[in-house]
Amino acid sequence: MNKPLSAGAGGVLLQSGNVLLVQVNYGANKGLWMLPGGFVEPGESIEQAGIREFMEETGLDVTVKRIVGIRSGVRESSDGTEAGIYIVFEMEYRSGDIRKDDREIAACKYWNVEEALQSDVVIDLTKQFIESALCSNGGLSPGRTGLKTKTTYKTYEYYKIIGES
Predict the structure, then answer these.
(1) CA-based, 20 to 30 A from 134: which of 32, 77, 90, 162?
(2) CATH code, 69
(3) Which residues have a Cβ under 8 Å from the Cβ of 16 and sit 6 or more positions away?
(4) Global model pTM greater than 0.85
(5) Is residue 70 part of a domain?
(6) How many domains does the chain have?
(7) Rounded Cα gap, residues 35 and 116, in angstroms
């Protein structure tokens, strides 16, 4: 049986040559370090999910800066085939102190970026998204607000490459 598409969001927060990572205490990645993130809840935008998950897992209030990566995949599970999409944002710190979620997260800390990129306990996909966030001239940035559309949305965001044309 095919399951509906799942959507998730996560974030890269870079501060003074460091990146904030969480150590997961459940599932296939238990014990490994990765970016904070999780699933979109019903009625929530992908941006809202990324910000909420970041707050839940780290205690930090952040805002979306740009999209630095997308992961898409299909896998077999015990109850059928599932497809998922995961959007990773570069986040910008707003406020707060690190306070991990004891239910899902074993630890939360800033890693030196170079050490994170070389570590065997940081998952490879996280490394790819960190590298993407380090590129100052790439990614998809939020477009201008106030676009006209005949469809009514509660929230409406779009992203595009910002740069010289």
Answers:
(1) 32
(2) 3.90.79.10
(3) none
(4) yes
(5) yes
(6) 1
(7) 11
Q: What is the 3-state secondary structure (H, E, C) of 7-64?
A: EEEEEECEECCEEEEEEECCCCCCCCEECCEEECCCCCCHHHHHHHHHHHHHCCEEEE
pLDDT 10s digits, 67-114: 999 999 888 878 888 889 999 999 999 999 999 888 899 999 999 999
Please write the tens of the pLDDT for every residue from 26-59: 988 999 999 999 999 999 999 999 999 999 999 9
Domain range for 119:
6-160
Place of tokens 């998204």: 129
Give me the pLDDT at residue 152, please: 75
Q: Report the alpha-carbon distance of residue 142 to residue 159 in Å, rounded.
A: 4
Q: Give a yes or no: residue 54 inside a domain.
A: yes
The answer, yes or no, to whether residue 165 has pLDDT greater than 70, is no
- Domain annotation covers residue 165: no
Question: How many angstroms separate the CA atoms of 20 and 34, rounded?
Answer: 9
Name which of 13, 12, 22, 29 is nearest 108 in CA terms: 22
Instruction: Determine, yes or no, domain membership for 101.
Output: yes
